[in-house]
Amino acid sequence: MEGIPVVLAMLAIVVLVIASFWIVFTKAGHPGWASIVPIYNIIVLLKIANKPWWWVFLYLIPLVGLVIGILVSIAVAKNFGKTTVFGLGLLFLPFICYPILAWGDARYAAQA
After folding, report:
1. Residue 78: closest CA among 43, 48, 35, 42
2. Is this structure's pTM higher than 0.70?
């Protein structure tokens, strides 16, 4: 019985992050459903970050994947007009920063 509230809280956080990704993808001009398709969601996130699609393979390499994740998160934040620190928040605190990006006033403007 004690674990049920924890499981429900974790489920609520997962639903919040999925919904946030869906809206962020839509704001960037991509289909929202792409956020729930494994591997394809990373490819679309790379498009949103203006990074090459083949970086998806770099995510699979230990430690390199972390560096790529940092670079992609910062690029996504920049493309939505946010700071580098916010980009780090996207990676390390997605349950806080992605809802801000999704339901806030941020607009997608891809930067070269």
Report:
1. 48
2. yes
